[in-house]
Specification:
Layout lengths: L2 E7 L2 H4 L2 H11 L7 E7 L8 E6 L7 H12 L6 E3 L2 E6 L3 H11 L4 E6 L2 E7 L2 H7 L9 E7 L14 E4 L2 E9 L2 H10 L9 H14 L4 H11 L2 E9 L2 E6 L8 E4 L3 E5 L3 H4 L8 E3 L7 E4 L4
Antiparallel strand pairs: 1-8, 1-14, 2-7, 2-8, 3-5, 3-6, 4-5, 9-10, 10-11, 11-12, 12-16, 13-14, 13-15
Helix pairs in contact: 6-7, 7-8
Length: 301
């Protein structure tokens, strides 16, 4: 099971209400993944020389203002936290590599959900409709976003094992399916310096893409590498700072549908999640072919 949704805005009418549309899409796929849900939203880029970090605390009593003060004192400045339920987002006056290294060394009680220029990740165990409400997804603007509803198969039902997974700057992945060689591949990637926080198979797929991109591949080539190096069944949706991409395994075992209008591009595990979008009745709709990478990117500024 599990459900994937993705929405890429091509007009202000969509980007200004992106979170509300994504929330509707997620709720439509709640019965495909009642265990947990999560989203990656790309919005409000950090200023030059700064980065954004999304953090999760299992301690409901965490003092996010104190975390911000520590980040600012150590790294030259940090914004006030934008707190949503158990998560908080900070803009830090340094690069993302330095910020995440400091957090791992000095605040190991916190979990880094994502880091980069635009990405924010929010995820939690629970029914998708409740998770959407808890994080106030409806009021978020953004250029594009991915979401996931989970029915656990490969690891426990926890916040950290929920999707999306981010193992590289501004990169995230959501997955419907299962990988059979994730343990062996995780060991290989760790030797290459890729860090993992869970035993989830999807995090390994995200780590694989991080490694391929770090080695110099473009996103399309990195995804094509999945076809030979990842064993199992999968529909992937991948987010980057400037767009998103979709890939199905060579036999297209897991469902997916794509649709496009002048205002948006959307993907979902089932059409009912796309049908709630404005203008869906006039969209071009198709089933993505197996072993083919589909991608969309923001226009250069």
């Amino acid at each position: 099971m599990c459900g994937i949704v993705g929405l890429f805005g091509k007009s202000a009418a969509i980007t200004e209400t992106l979170g509300a549309h994504l929330a509707e899409m997620l709720v439509q796929l709640g019965d495909r993944g009642p265990d947990s849900a999560g989203v990656a939203v790309y919005r409000d880029p950090a200023p030059p020389g700064a980065c954004k970090v999304s953090l999760f605390s299992p301690d409901p009593g965490v003092d996010w203002a104190e975390v911000g003060a520590e980040l600012g004192a150590a790294l030259g400045g940090a914004s006030s936290p934008e707190v949503r339920a158990t998560h908080a987002v900070f803009v830090v006056e340094t690069d993302a590599t330095a910020a995440t290294a400091w957090l791992r060394a000095h605040r190991p009680d916190l979990r880094i959900m994502s880091a980069g220029e635009r990405i924010e990740i929010y995820k939690e165990a629970g029914l998708p409709r409740d998770v959407v409400r808890r994080f106030g997804l409806e009021d978020m603007r953004g250029s594009h976003a991915l979401g996931h509803t989970r029915m656990a198969t490969e690891s426990r039902v926890t916040t950290q094992a929920s999707h999306p997974f981010s193992t590289g700057l501004d990169l995230c992945l959501v997955h419907n399916g299962s990988l059979s060689n994730h343990n062996a591949l995780r060991r290989e990637l760790r030797r290459e310096g890729v860090e993992f926080q869970t035993d989830n198979d999807t995090e390994v797929a995200a780590g694989y893409l991080t490694w391929r991109l770090r080695e110099g591949d473009a996103l399309e080539a990195a995804l094509e590498g999945c076809l030979s190096d990842l064993d199992g069944f999968y529909t992937f949706a991948v987010g980057t700072a400037d767009g998103f991409a979709v890939l199905r395994d060579p036999i297209a075992c897991k469902p997916a549908v794509l649709a496009e209008t002048d205002d948006w591009v959307a993907m979902a595990s089932e059409y009912r999640a796309i049908a709630v979008l404005p203008g869906a009745e006039d969209a071009a709709v198709w089933e993505p072919a197996p072993a083919h990478v589909y991608s969309w990117a923001l226009e250069p500024v």
